[in-house]
Amino acid sequence: MDHDANNHPGSLIEGLSKVCAMEHYAYITTYELSFPLLNKLDCRLVCLPEIFSKVRHSILLTKHSPYRKAINNVIQKLKESGVLKNIKIQTMGIAVAQPDLKEDTISGVELGTVYCVFLILISGALVSVLILAAENIYHLLEQKYLMNRHPLKTNYLS
């Protein structure tokens, strides 16, 4: 195969057509971009999800853009409702697991959800204060008992 820079396809449809025309030829593109063009080809192409590269998409905004908060809220709602996952399944045709990518989810927490945790923390704090008080009382009583048992011996010279 010739590695000439002028031999590379100039467009997406040209690259996909070259896959159909040439044997032992591969063309790397995203499924989302190539899917609308597949019915224009004279051959059947197969997507290989095992070697599909993970692509992150970005929206560039200026630092103090008025749209930033609105776009973030909409994207978050789409993630929480599962719409983004459904779009990926519909466009990819399969559910692709990506365990190394973390989803940025923010969810509200109600008092009822964390009530048990706070109850355990407060109970532990109260028990530790009661144990501290009992130890101090025991220590004071022990000192008082020892003082009464062994009074200080003094020699008075008269």
TrEMBL record:
Concerning SUPFAM superfamilies, the annotation shows: Periplasmic binding protein-like II
Q: Where are the transmembrane segments?
A: 112-134
Keywords of the record: Cell membrane, Glycoprotein, Membrane, Receptor, Transmembrane, Transmembrane helix
Keyword match Transmembrane: yes
> Topology in the membrane?
Multi-pass membrane protein
Signal sequence bounds: none
Please state where this protein is localized: Cell membrane
Main location (coarse class): membrane
Record protein name field: Uncharacterized protein
| The organism of origin for this protein | Timema podura
